[in-house]
Amino acid sequence: MVPITVTGKALWEKVEASMEKVQRRLRRAVDILARAGVPYAVVGGNAVRVWVAQVDEAAVRATQDVDILISRENLGKVIAAMGAEGMIFRESAGLSMVLEFPEDKARDAIHLVFTGERIKADDPEVNPGLESVVQVEDFQTLPLERLVRMKLNSHRLKDRVHLLDMISVGLVDSNWPEKYPPALANRLRALLENPDQ
C-alpha cells in the first residue's frame, strides 16, 4: 500500500496545482494554434467539462490531459508553431503528442487526434471534421451532438464516464440514440438504460 506522505494544506495545494497545470497547458496550446491560423477543436475531457458546466458546475470532473482535434494536413504547421515555443513533438505507441518539457510523460501531453481518422483501429467511425465548431470563451470545441458521437465512437472507460456525466446533468437523454447509426445508438442506449453498469 502506498503511504500518504502529503497532507493538510500541502495536499490541497498539490491538487489545485495539478488542475491549474492542465488549464494552463490547454490555454497555451490553443493560443499557439490560433496565432498559427490552424483550425482545431478541443475534445476529450476538457470539452466535456465545458458542456457539463453549462448545466451544473458541481458535476464538472477534473481531467488530466489535453486532447485537440486537427487535420493531419496541418500537423507540420502544428509541430512548427509549438516547436517555436519550445514544445516537443513525439509519437509513441501510435499516439501523436506535444510535450511542454522533455521530462513530461504522456499523461502530461497535448494529445493530437486527427479528423477523418480512427483513434483505435476498431472504432466504428472516423473522427469528425472541423467544419462545425463552437467558440467557448477563448477556445473552440465541437457542438455537443458531435462530441457525444466522438465519445460513443471511442467508447473507452473514460469516454463512457464522460457520457454518463453528460447524461446525469440532462445534456443527453433517451431521445438521443436516434441521432446516431445503430452501432453508436446501441452503446448510448446501454448507458441510458443501465448507468451503473
What report would you give on this structure?
This protein has 197 residues and is α+β, with helices and mostly antiparallel strands. It has a domain at 12-142: 2-Layer Sandwich (Beta Polymerase, domain 2), CATH 3.30.460. 43% of the residues lie in helices and 15% in strands. It contains 6 helices and 7 strands; from the N terminus they run αβαβαβββββααα. The strands form 2 sheets. It has a 5-stranded mixed sheet. The longest helix has 29 residues, at 8-36. The radius of gyration is 17 Å and the shape is globular. The two termini are 28 Å apart. The mean pLDDT is 92.
The low-confidence parts are none
Beginning-to-end CA distance, first to last residue: 28 Å
Name of the CATH architecture of one domain = 2-Layer Sandwich
Count of helix runs: 6
**What shape does the CA trace take?**
globular
Instruction: Give the topology string: H per helix, E per strand.
Output: HEHEHEEEEEHHH
| CATH topology description of one domain | Beta Polymerase, domain 2
Radius of gyration: 17 Å
Tell me the number of strands: 7
Q: Kindly state the percentage of residues in helix.
A: 40-55%
Strand content: 5-15%
Strand order of the largest sheet: 1-2-5-4-3
Largest sheet features = 5 strands, mixed
What is the multimeric organization of the chains shown? single chain
Mean pLDDT figure: 92
